[in-house]
Amino acid sequence: MAKKKNKGPRASVSAESFGTFNKKADFKPRIVPKSEEATETILDKIKNVFMFSGLDEKELRIVVDAMEERSCFKKEVVIKEGDDGDCLYVVGSGTLSCTKIFKGDTEPTILKHYEPGEAFGELALLYNCPRAATIFSDGESTLFGLDRNTFNHIVKDAAIRKREKYEGFMKQVPLLEEMDDYERSQISEAFKDAKFSAGQQIIKEGDEGKEMFFLVEGEAFATKAIEEGKPAQEVKSYKTGDYFGELALLRGEPRAANVMARTECTCVTLDRHAFKRMLGPLDEILKRNQDLYIKYKKD
Ligand code: CMP
Ligand code: CMP
């Protein structure tokens, strides 16, 4: 994980109140003319941007129509820490680096790298704050920029609601305690809700694993047949903040145990793609934790 000296900035700052500036009725979609091919390219690039995942087809089209392509040269600074910001970007091609100068430092710390299909520059638009970090193009790159006005009308409310919804819960997840507020808010953007009734099977041993789970509310437990021919027995119990279903994604193998809801359970899930992208930095911790399961292995 990138070196962190500080907790991430203002992920908990609440949204600006709605003023005349924000009135939905005044919204006139911005249309930047582009070919059908360019439209398709952008649609393809933004399909995995979690912030846009709740948008319907019509809203997505408004976003794409408003986007403007920008070419960057090597080392070009796209966003400068402390500046005002009026644009969010999605990477079309190339890679970019994100840096920040922490209090007491003179040299910037590299926070992360961006690849095609990833978005940055959303914080200034979400919270009306100066840019929280600097982002420059590693080599040549192309970006698709989305203006503040379109962002405000189409994306902002839902994005803030989602970030705030899981903010408290995320702090109770021991697995994520090494992450800063910013990284946690990014993860919560990728969460999908899942509810189970008491006694319902959440995971079946041997099935293909498509997602991992975090338990937000309720109690659950894992069962596994430890000895050949004997019925499955309880091997682990889960409470708020615990996770399960990571092994299948980590190892690319079928589910290694059953997980059942003991009471009514509210969970959030991360699919395979989000798991790789968001929890990649936690790979070592997840692998280390899986050793705790070994004594229950059948073989
Ligand atoms: P914004 O503040 O608008 O501009 C700088 C961007 O850097 C910010 O939005 C985020 O998209 C991105 N960023 C990546 N990592 C961090 C971090 N740890 N803290 C703040 N911003 C970050
Ligand atoms: P996964 O194999 O994806 O799905 C079943 C989950 O049960 C597994 O990930 C672990 O998160 C969890 N689990 C709990 N105890 C065990 C165990 N003894 N062996 C394997 N998985 C376990």
Q: Helix amount, in percent?
A: 25-40%
Number of strands: 16
CATH topology of the largest domain: Jelly Rolls
Named once each, the bound ligands are:
adenosine-3',5'-cyclic-monophosphate
Beta-strand residue fraction: 25-35%
Would you tell me the overall average pLDDT? 89
Order of helices and strands: HHEEEEEEHEEHHEEEEEEHEEHH
Overall geometry comes to elongated
Q: How would a crystallographer describe the biggest sheet?
A: 4 strands, antiparallel
What are the segments in which pLDDT stays under 50 over at least 5 consecutive residues?
1-22
CATH architecture classification of the largest domain: Sandwich
Strand pairing plus helix content: what structural class?
alpha+beta
Number of helices: 8
Number of domains: 2
Per CATH, the class of the largest domain reads: Mainly Beta
Order of the strands making up the biggest sheet: 1-8-3-6
Distance N to C terminus? 34 Å
Spatial extent as radius of gyration: 21 Å
The CATH H-level homologous superfamily of the largest domain: Jelly Rolls
